[in-house]
Structure prediction request, 261 residues.
Amino acid sequence: MSTGSPFNRVEYVLARLSLTSPHDILWVNNTRTSQESCSIIFPSGRIPTFLLSSDQSHTLVSGLLLLNGFAFLLDAMNIQDGGLEGGCTCRYIRYRLASKPLIVHCCHCTWCQRETGSAFVINALFPASDVIHLNGEHEEGKQEPVIVNTPSLSGKGQRIARCPKCHVALWSNYPGAGSAIRFVRVGTLDSPHVFVPDAHIYARTKVPWVEIPKDAEVGVFEEFYDTEMVWGKDVDERRFKVLEGIRSRRAAAGGVDGTSG
Prediction:
């Protein structure tokens, strides 16, 4: 799936390469015109370790060339692995995303407005296994969030993972998808601007001054969308594969399927 507009896709790649400062980037082509190709030149000393072999003697990505202290990444859009990191405000909880999101929701329901104290919440949906816990910056070892059972619009509730120290919400799990999918709060990413919403949901209760873009990739929905319309096999194979896994586990447990609350 795409990660939004062409410009945002390039920002996504740059953030994953930790090239977030203008001084890190010597040249980028096609930043606003191409979703399929992007070349970047940057100092070789800024190459992220996940693109190098364990002894850092060679690169692990085709199209990444090293020459005279410079790195030439000829097709940045082919970098498929994750790399974006995030965490809470006090940095006690840290995580890394190992893939691109299945879909990005912007929810305008009044419950999310109340819980966040804002006009909406932006959640990026990831398989739980792709949200990797890291060592916190002020403690040894990997720190775990506390799980807070919280009411939701559906009446089924949600489980919000919060930092036990600063209490920032990091992600939620909803009954429909269970523990299989984490609804990661995009605002907790170190580079939160790299994901734009694919779908605006519960638009009927949006605040009046919010103007929803007309070019949302998946669409704008007055309530929650029809799962088959968005997660069907003919629409997105990756989402469909995850959905099938959820359905199999729910059926075995005698429950219901879905990705909503």
Remarks:
- The longest helix spans residues 237-253.
- The chain is about 15% helix and 25% strand.
- Residues 45 and 69 are 7 Å apart (CA to CA).
- Residues 85-253 form a domain with the Metal Binding Protein, Guanine Nucleotide Exchange Factor; Chain A fold (CATH 2.170.150.70).
